Amino acid sequence: MKKKLIIINGTMGVGKTATCKELNKKLENSVWLDGDWCWMMNPFKVNEENKRMVINNITYLLRSFLTNSSIKYIIFNWVIHVENIFSDVLEPLNDLDFEVVKISLTCSEEALKKRILQDVKSNLREEACLSRSIERLKMYENMITEKIDTSNLSILETVDKIMKIV
User: Given 31, 76, 100, 142, which residue has the most CB atoms within 10 angstroms?
Assistant: First the structure.
């Protein structure tokens, strides 16, 4: 079996992290990388140098996972709101033999608001991310990915849908 790189994207608050945490438990011989881990800086500063560093760190880790003989599934989640970010991540890995599965998690605006406001209440997010997340929601509609609407799904139901795709 060819190794599979499972890329799960979606706007903030759609359920990527919770879903990937459970998917990693269900898939034998898997590893999980959350792209946000590579952005954990204080202060959080988006500039060209930092973007380049984050992409380099992500591709370094993905390459390490893809060349490890005991790993069969690499789960990678990140916001990835535009197609060229897929290219930035995947092009440096062109010399490796693996299958890419791209899945966008989406949800209704109402469900997104509810989830983010719950995260704000739990001090997991700042309220300012609500408008940014809602603005980006439509960006995923035309991406070249499998789509899963998580509006009325539990995390485990979402994982089951991903398992069927994978």
Answer: 76
